[in-house]
Specification:
Blueprint: H1 5-24, H2 39-44, H3 48-58, H4 60-70, H5 75-86, H6 90-109, H7 131-140, H8 158-161, H9 167-171, H10 183-205
Length: 206
Amino acid sequence: MNFDEDFFVKSARKHAEKSIELSKWGWYPTPNIKIGENLRKLQEQDLINTFYSKRNRECLNENELYCLENAQERKRVLKAAFRLHHAGEYYGSIPIFLAQAEGIFNEEFKRSIFSNSSRSYEKINKIRQFNEGIFFDAFLSSTFVSNQIGDDKSKCSDTLKQKGPNRNGIMHGDVRHTDYGSETNSLKSISLLCCAIWLSAVNAET
């Protein structure tokens, strides 16, 4: 079966749209987790966190192995974070995952994965003229979204907290963000970490 360039562009755009919507809820694409579900239906039923918590829980071992194999220089600290996660010590695992994701992404892309300034899908580098590049940019779009994880620590309502752990509030010890230690938030942080490692590795190879 032959696919023309327009097919890949349209397909990539759909992946980008889904990646963007998922990242608004604090979930990021990884090599082991598909994003082909009907997000509108999940949103209407208020099931996005439930569905993707289950999916990320099922893929946890694969995501952990991917992270450890592709971030060798950070293996010691990442192993500690995953041990904390497996032990249910989410207050300890989440800050490590968030900090390492930021460091990894910044090393490769020279910008913070949490910086919300001047973010837009349109500002991503022009789509490369080969199929892998089109889909790479589609998944990279998830890092150009303003969400609860990267937002200001003043964003502290219960509704917003459903969309992810607030990195600024956690790292700066804001008393309004001392309730972040849930399995769902730790799984979201792992998805962010795995996404940062994945995109950095692919970008370094191209």
